[in-house]
Write a structure and sequence with these properties.
The chain has 20 helices and 25 strands. By secondary structure, it is α+β, with helices and mostly antiparallel strands. The strands form four sheets. Strands 1-5-6-7-10-12-11-13 form an eight-stranded mixed sheet, covered by helices on one side. The protein has an eight-stranded antiparallel sheet with strand order 22-21-24-25-18-19-20-23, with no helix packed on it. The protein binds fe (ii) ion.
Length: 600
């Protein structure tokens, strides 16, 4: 497949980073500390220390319903006590006034190993290409258990070259330190140990509690603080950031993946501010092909009910927790779509996407062709087949080839594979035999032993299939891009663009977009925005490029093979958009291609 300039797993195996040669590997090799000695043979998650440190969530879960032996979840009480200790701060902070704001969203980052480091160089390069104002870590800042003394190696060191402030919202693993002490110390400026009241809120003697911060951690926190400039300090574990024309609302879903009544009341109130909004949440609302609306304690409502209210103006709800990228554009009536996104691929061990079936059949309001994920389902299955194979002796009896895996899953789920090559691939008899075995192993690991063993399937070699988001907001214009981090050197500077979407008040969300890059030295650039009403068959294409007469829009299903040509001008209507399956586009002038791009 000939290149259309930007690499991506949606277009080619090469864009996904499959089968890298040793000399193609990127800078993560220099950043990740490799352990030595016999212990290095054990994945971190298989070590008793990591299990024991992250036990609180399990204690709550496993003792639920055991009457007087039940260990209650102290999150709500502790969260309230922390806010009291902070003097009940105003939870809405205002960004410096600018025309444009940009930020990076990194989900579930802090494992401290190669998969985290694989994201660092691409992230910094994207920031250098066009500066962002801040970075926000979306849930699970630190593994295994938010330890106040591990922030240097898992947060400050990796991102020390990022020049702006870093905000965060805590995930269940940050609460696993016993009281959220680590997060409160490093993100909310609580310089002391938790008060006796916060400690007491967790009643059980089995409860894991964090130690005190060492002096060098206070030092590290201060030097990070000095990079904040005119940006406000983070007021609490949940807060709102007013960017001018948009409001970013960040909630803390705690240990039990719910929010407390007090936070719920705050969320209802802040949601009435008349501005378009983005919700950031630890726990995502649509995930793995299921709907999890997130309960509010002492309240019959859910977080999603607040998001859905048309008066609140939510455009998207982005959650972490699950370590990959998924996007569900949900039609919620009145021609409105809300983007429900999972973005937890910022560093820690990978979670698979291959278990996500046809989302159009499983969920209301979502159409399968509009669903996006990274890694692609076939790549995810191939990735895990290699892991299972190596765990079971490395005889090559289970390993699947990515395009064949995609074709086999496509047949199973009734979906069309994404990569053009995979569409033309017929799974071999061998693949047909292996796929059910791999899926059965998956089900065994995931359903029965997920808490303990699933992270033990961590693989710290390229391709990593990690990702992060870049969000750009201007008045009346919001853009979200998902970049892949494969671990390959060439992808650290030329980042795979795995998703790209844009919202404007007149047209709402795009269903697909292409960025056009110049072919040769033509210098012609631009973009193609694709809009489609929920459920409609035809799409409207809006091309933005310099005004040059005689340009034609090209549409094709694979690079270099054009099936349709349209004169530029009025918005272009393409009939039966989904069935056409266009993946690549370009501009031609006098019969010669002057710019090319691919739809994501
Ligand atoms: Fe996580």
């Amino acid at each position: 497949v000939r290149s259309v300039t930007r690499p991506s797993s949606r277009l080619s195996l090469e864009g996904a980073g499959w089968e890298p040669q040793p000399d193609e590997l990127g800078h993560f090799q220099l950043l990740c500390r490799r352990e030595r000695g016999w212990l290095s043979w054990f994945p971190t998650w298989l070590r008793p220390r990591a299990w024991l440190a992250a036990r609180n969530e399990k204690l709550v879960l496993f003792t639920r319903g055991l009457g007087r032996f039940a260990i209650p979840d102290p999150t709500t009480a502790q969260r309230r006590l922390w806010l009291e200790e902070l003097g009940r701060p105003a939870l809405t902070v205002r960004a410096p006034s600018r025309r444009r704001h940009s930020f990076l969203l990194v989900g579930d980052s802090g494992e401290g190993d190669c998969s985290q480091m694989a994201v660092v160089t691409p992230l910094l390069n994207e920031d250098r290409r066009r500066r962002t104002d801040f970075m926000l870590i979306l849930s699970d800042v630190l593994y295994p258990a938010g330890d106040v003394n591990e922030y240097r190696e898992k947060l400050y060191e990796p991102y020390r070259r990022y020049p702006g402030p870093i905000y965060g919202i805590p995930g269940n693993h940050d609460w696993d330190d016993g009281s959220l002490h680590g997060f409160m110390f490093h993100f909310c400026g609580v310089a002391t140990a938790p008060s006796a009241a916060v400690e007491r809120a967790a009643g059980s003697r089995l409860w894991h509690r964090s130690g005190e911060a060492r002096p060098e951690l206070e030092q590290a926190r201060r030097s990070r603080e000095s990079l904040r400039g005119p940006w406000p300090a983070q007021p609490g574990p949940y807060f709102a950031l007013d960017l001018g024309p948009f409001l970013v609302v960040a909630i803390d879903t705690g240990l039990g993946r719910t929010i407390d009544g007090e936070q719920g009341a705050w969320l209802r109130e802040i949601s009435r501010v008349p501005k378009p909004k983005l919700l950031l949440t630890g726990r995502p609302i649509y995930v793995d092909g299921t709907y999890a609306p997130c309960a509010i304690e002492d309240d019959s409502g859910t977080v999603d009910e607040i998001v859905l209210d048309p008066d609140h103006g939510y455009l998207a709800a982005i959650g972490g927790d699950i370590h990959n990228y998924q996007r569900y554009p949900v039609s919620v009536g009145g021609g409105r779509r809300i983007q429900y996104v999972v973005s937890g691929g910022g560093g820690a061990f990978m979670n698979g996407t291959h278990g996500i079936g046809n989302v159009g059949r499983a969920l209301g309001g979502v159409e399968e062709p509009d669903f996006r994920c990274y890694p692609l389902r076939g790549d995810s299955l191939a990735f895990f087949s290699e892991i299972y194979d190596s765990r079971l002796g490395g005889f090559g009896l289970l390993a699947l080839e990515p395009d064949e895996a995609a074709a086999a899953l496509g047949g199973r789920y009734g979906i069309a594979p994404t990569r053009p090559e995979a569409c033309r691939t017929e799974p071999s008899a061998k693949t047909r035999l292996r796929v059910p075995v791999v899926l059965a192993l998956e089900s065994f690991f995931r359903k029965t032993l997920s808490f303990v063993y699933y992270p033990a399937l961590d693989r710290d070699t390229a391709p990593f299939f990690k990702s992060f988001l870049r969000v750009d907001v201007e008045p009346d214009d919001l853009r979200i891009r998902c970049f892949g981090a494969t671990g390959l050197l060439r992808h650290e500077t030329d980042l795979p663009l795995e998703d790209d979407l844009r919202w404007t008040p007149e047209r709402g969300w795009t269903v697909s977009r292409a960025t056009l890059q110049p072919r040769g030295d033509s210098g012609v650039e631009g973009s193609v925005d694709v809009y489609r009403e929920p459920g409609a068959r035809d799409a409207t294409l809006v091309v933005a490029t310099e005004d040059s007469p005689g340009l034609e829009l090209l549409l094709g299903v694979k690079p270099g093979v054009w099936r349709d040509r349209r004169p530029l001008g009025e918005p272009i209507v393409v009939e039966r958009w989904v069935e056409q399956g266009y993946r690549v586009t370009g501009l031609a002038s006098g019969g010669e291609v002057v710019a090319e791009g691919m739809f994501v």
